[in-house]
Amino acid sequence: MSDERPTQTKVPAGPDEIQPDPAADPVLPGNYLLELIPVPVADLDVAKEFYVAAGFHADVDVTPAEGVRIVQLTPPGSHCSIVLSTGLNNLEMPPGSLRGLHLVVADIEAARNDLIARGVDVQPVQDLGGVFYAAFSDLDGNTWTLQHMPWRQ
């Protein structure tokens, strides 16, 4: 899961400094793209370290204003990222209060073993009627679920 993309650490001074991303999905009329989910944590540095160790790519780590910090991380292969932040009142939630974020995987045993090798405590796989799940938590108690649906290729 090597990723050579650098972490954005500079806030662009204006729109002319923002480069187009040819890999990004187009935003077509009528589409509502879910691209960023706030994850409430107590310590941004500790949480960032956990998620990077778990294989997430650190896309952004910026301080756009005094007292504000935004850390954006993306799970491998995902089009949706998470954001860890401080100083943004509209994103405030108690640390550890997010439940059941799903990461859909092709091979749940391989994904589970990869996370375990990265130091994440992942529960055993459960078969719930042909859909397979394996749960884990971040250090704040936010819960995640690996999900495998055999019919999805």
Order of helices and strands: EHEEEEHEEE
Distance between the termini: 19 Å
Q: Give average pLDDT, whole number.
A: 91
**Can you identify the CATH superfamily?**
2,3-Dihydroxybiphenyl 1,2-Dioxygenase, domain 1
**Rg over alpha carbons:** 17 Å
Number of helical segments with 4 or more residues: 2
| Helix content, binned percent | 10-25%
Strand content: 25-35%
β-strand number:
8
Description:
A four-stranded mixed β-sheet has the order 1-4-3-2, with helices on one face. The protein has a four-stranded mixed β-sheet with strand order 5-8-7-6, with helices on one face. Strand 7 (132-137) and strand 8 (143-148) form a beta hairpin. It is of the alpha/beta class and 153 residues long. The mean pLDDT is 91. It has one domain: 2,3-Dihydroxybiphenyl 1,2-Dioxygenase, domain 1 (Roll). The protein has helices at 44-53, 108-117, and strands at residues 36-38, 57-65, 68-74, 81-86, 101-104, 126-127, 132-137, 143-148.
Q: Topology, please?
A:
Layout: E1 36-38, H1 44-53, E2 57-65, E3 68-74, E4 81-86, E5 101-104, H2 108-117, E6 126-127, E7 132-137, E8 143-148
Parallel strand pairs: 1-4, 5-8
Antiparallel strand pairs: 2-3, 3-4, 6-7, 7-8
